[in-house]
Amino acid sequence: MIQIATFTRKFFIELVKQLQIYGTLYVTEDGNIYVNESQAQTRCQSREKLAHLNGELVQELRYARVDKVNPPRDTAEFEEMLETQFRARRQAAKNSLAEAEKERNRPVMSDAEAEALLEGTTPASKKQDDEADGEKAVNAFNTLLDWGMQALVGPTTTGASVAVAAECGNDPETFMITPSASSEDVTKGKDCVFQVCFTDPNQGVNAAKFLAQKYANEKFVLFYNSGDAYSSGIADSFKAQAAKSKLEIVDEETFKDDSATSFTNQLTKAKQAGATMIFAPIYYTPASVLLKNAKDMGYDVKMMGCDGMDGILGVEGFDTSLAEGLLLMTPFSADDEKNADFVNAYKDKYGETPDQFAADAYDGVHAVAEAVKEAGLGVDADPTEVAEKLSKAMLKITVDGLTGKLTWNDKGQVQKEPTPYVI
Questions:
Q1: Which of 39, 228, 281, 391 has the most CB atoms less than 10 A away?
Q2: In sequence order, what are the beta bridge partners of 415?
Q3: With b meaning 16 or more CB within 10 Å and e meaning fewer, what string describes 247-280?
Q4: 237 by DSSP, 3-state: which?
Q5: What is the pLDDT of residues 96-112, one digit of tens each?
């Protein structure tokens, strides 16, 4: 990787001026500025090709997406932005390759399994990638309906789940259970849609109550993604309960996905406000950036997150020592002895440690199996009949799952005990 140039103050001033016009720009580490990401990618690839022709050995030229909300102010901030985004893109590519490798190495089913499918006695499964996009999720849902889907376990993200749940609630209905979409909007007004994870209000309320019991004397900064339904939903319920529990919130800081490369500005404000503890209902990737920024600026502060932060120890390039003492309000821990069999089996199959998202998905499949037995349904049941009978069965079953003892109310929301874990 080339050594990043030291840019002048004039360069950053000009960059800010251009951002006011375009909103978002893509800047390479050798100082080229582009309106489109494809242009920046072409620049990076062209440099590599030229170096190859000249017999030079160089690594990939980096580029960063910069927006007008949180532009870099100097070379150090730009370097941090470049490296954070470079690692995120590399991790995404690695995950994509790993998924493709899993597909290639999928074991061939046994003769007995094939015979069972021919006889129609074994349920079949099929998956579609919605890319966490509502429109693509609906397209994937329709593809599965055309295939003959009778019940859906998914989607996993809130936006995609809200979009698909709306389709499931149409006549004829389709049974759906989402492992990890936590907004109340997912199940609202739909008797055929259920959740395995806690709702956003549930997480925010329980986190505030826990902190009031254990950390009542701390001064809090509430830090969340204002553009994400999961994060802002928990933040709203936390703030309301914090007032009731008399927690002292001295600062509130927000960000959006396109400005999640550095939180130095927000942390500086929190520190100046006297915050001694962060409550951050955010996902693990921005959480890793938040912890690194705090460390780099010498801000010694406690931190608590929710289930979306589970998985932070697996972020590529993250110094896991920064997460020591991190509190998580999550229903599952891979370190809990009672989960050892599942954790070992998961590691053997996928080569990595499962997080709460994997555990929620496992419990979701388990719940469908229990509900099918309760309803007395066969593999050839009509999807409309499945939706009607499974929805009724879900209100009767109890699942002893990885994430606790699960039951469901008539709103489709799971009832189970949240548990705080310390890394």
A1: 281
A2: 407
A3: bebbbbbebeeebbbbbbbbbeebbeeebbbbbb
A4: helix
A5: 666 555 555 555 555 65
C-alpha 48/C-alpha 24 separation (Å) is 25
Which among 351, 375, 356 is positioned nearest to 419, based on CA atoms? 356
CA distance 348 to 101: 15
Q: What angle do CA 106, 110, 116 make, to 5 degrees?
A: 115
Kindly provide the b/e burial profile for residues 185-209, where b requires at least 16 CB atoms within 10 angstroms of the residue's own CB. Answer: bbbeebbbbbbbbbbbbbbbbbbbb
Q: Could you tell me if 169 and 152 are in contact, meaning their C-beta atoms sit under 8 angstroms apart? A: no
Using an 8 Å Cβ cutoff, are 370 and 400 in contact?
no
**Coil, strand or helix at 223:** strand
Residue 56's alpha-carbon distances to 1, 42, 52, 59, 63, in angstroms, are 12, 19, 6, 10, 20
Sign of the alpha-carbon torsion through 303, 338, 195, 155: positive
What confidence score (pLDDT) does residue 48 get? 55
pTM comes to: 0.62
Do residues 332 and 359 lie in contact, with contact meaning Cβ atoms separated by under 8 Å?
yes
Low-confidence stretches of the chain (pLDDT < 70) are: 1-5, 47-60, 95-122
Q: Is 229 left (phi over 0), alpha (psi -120 to 50) or beta?
A: alpha
- Backbone phi and psi for residue 65, each to the nearest 5 degrees, phi listed first: -80, 125
**Contact in structure between 222 and 238 (CB atoms under 8 Å):** yes
Predicted pLDDT of residue 359? 92
- Pairing outcome for strands 175-178 and 24-28: unpaired
Q: What share of the chain is helix, strand, coil (3-state, %, to 5)?
A: 50, 15, 35
**Could you identify the residue written with the tokens 């998961």?**
346
pLDDT at residue 272 in the model: 97
